Amino acid sequence: MRVLVLGSSGQVGAYLVEYLNNNGHEAIEFDIVRRDGEDLRIPLNINLRKALDDVDFVFFLAFDVGGSRYLSKYQHTYEFVDNNIRLMANTFELLKFYNKPFVFASSQMSNMTYSPYGVLKAIGETYTKSLGGRIVKFWNVYGIEHDLAKSHVITDFILKAKNNRVIDMLTDGQEEREFLYADDCCEALNAVMKNYESFDSESELNITSFKSTKVIDIANIIAKYFDASVLPSEKVDTVQMNKKNVANKLILDYWSPKTSIEDGINKIIKDMK
What is the CATH number of the domain that holds 91? Predict the structure, then answer.
């Protein structure tokens, strides 16, 4: 199939493009990082219209988002809200017109109403349900990142350990996350595409490792590779505010994660070297 990946240069998108091309599909890339004409904030974007007219399936991964450092700084700003509202409104309008099967990448934070990012993802879910698309919820997917201004916790820790031999943390590290390696995420997305008709727009498809790990434990795993020290902060998590969701396991009938957090971190460190 010809598969359009919106957000193809992002952390998940870049992995997904490679995965699709290596598994019998043709991935069509679309991302503002590639060129200005692929800006989803442009109303009735002619390049997006051409792309949608000639594909069989769409993964809507594009979003203005980053790790907790980025969200803490920007998610309450006008620009952050406006960027995401406009890219969603324009994209969903064209998805409705071209009536292509699609998957919208949401987040397990979509029920955290104190988070603008979570609220925006909830709006995306509402759009998706109205159009009969499918919703997946990502839980802390990690992999190689190229936009370090938006990097997530594992990348941040690796860079600090490598460059400074000290991982100075933004929090006390007691918050827990379910980390999923990007390759596993791609396999899950492919399973959703392959079994698209087995789900409906109300299906809650949580793409996660289903294993919870404290952030300070992530820091300690990474520190060992570089003989680095770990310096927790006295601050607590202000992004998710320690809210703990419980993922349903519907997706496990079609896919299961393979990569342990230790193996995933090891792969990233080798790739970054």
Answer: 3.40.50.720
